[in-house]
């Protein structure tokens, strides 16, 4: 057992207690684990994962453990304590950044120590890569793109989209542990709990992986925020006809304080960068406003914007599927709308 020093946060003392025996793999207390990574910290997605973990643990009457994998500063630990019954830290020099094999090995060791009923991760590329492999190593079950989680009779139920977003299905995961990646930004954020919590630092036995070598790492930056965190998104599709009209859309997005996005067709055509793609095989976003311009609205694209609070569409085709999913729609040539809309916004914001 390990006793952490008290931490001072906002003039309140957080006291960490000795850990109970369930951290040694005991089945006396079942737990739900929400996994966050030290290299990303607690952002909007992490709060969504922690929130889903809170609710699932309440449904199952289990303990909710916030797991920090990788670098864990005192500030990060103090923040995570607000949203979990217990905190577990899995830090190691080889976990300073993501490596698929090393991170997978670390998570496998951690889960064997914690013996969780369910492990929740976010929906970034790393998590989607880890979930099925971790479930296989632990002999559990895996599911992804979870919109909602619930528990019944010690069984995890997952609600997710099927048939290209045209319907939803509830899946029962009978084999434990259930390893899940959730649509993080679509979840209700975690609610702060009592500040007194348990903390442990788990011991990991890791060796450098020589089979897979990370050759290069590139970070794509767009504006001042990640597309998944944008509150306003202006998105263009095949109907724009080329790359040049995206210049007009970018000017509109800048006035609105938004980010740029595109449909798969526009990205595949090479008109815009691939990281702009929104949809089933692209990014899933949840802005306050999603403005779809010259996008027909195929079901694969709708899956990526299903969590948007408000969808507005401009399209020349009155029968475009996008009009079945938007709150505001305008049947018009975008060239007759984008310019005047930008000018009007400039006038209003002057």
Give the topology, please.
Layout: E1 7-9, E2 12-14, E3 16-17, E4 31-37, H1 44-60, E5 63-69, H2 74-80, E6 86-90, H3 100-114, E7 118-121, H4 125-138, E8 141-152, E9 155-162, E10 167-173, E11 178-182, E12 197-201, E13 232-236, H5 245-256, E14 259-262, H6 264-268, E15 289-293, H7 299-305, E16 311-315, E17 328-331, H8 338-349
Parallel strand pairs: 3-12, 4-5, 4-7, 5-6, 6-12, 7-11, 8-11, 13-14, 13-15, 15-16, 16-17
Antiparallel strand pairs: 1-2, 8-9, 9-10
Helix pairs in contact: 3-4, 5-8
Structure explained in plain terms:
- This protein has 350 residues and is α/β, with parallel strands linked by helices.
- The protein folds into two domains: 7-201, 3-Layer(aba) Sandwich (Rossmann fold), CATH 3.40.50.620; 227-349, TPP-binding domain (Rossmann fold).
- Helices cover 25% and strands 26% of the residues.
- The chain has helices spanning 44-60, 74-80, 100-114, 125-138, 245-256, 264-268, 299-305, 338-349, and strands at 7-9, 12-14, 16-17, 31-37, 63-69, 86-90, 118-121, 141-152, 155-162, 167-173, 178-182, 197-201, 232-236, 259-262, 289-293, 311-315, 328-331.
- The strands form three sheets. The chain has a ten-stranded mixed β-sheet. A five-stranded parallel β-sheet has the order 14-13-15-16-17. It has a two-stranded antiparallel ribbon with strand order 1-2.
- The longest helix is centred in the first third of the chain and has 17 residues, at 44-60.
- The termini are far apart.
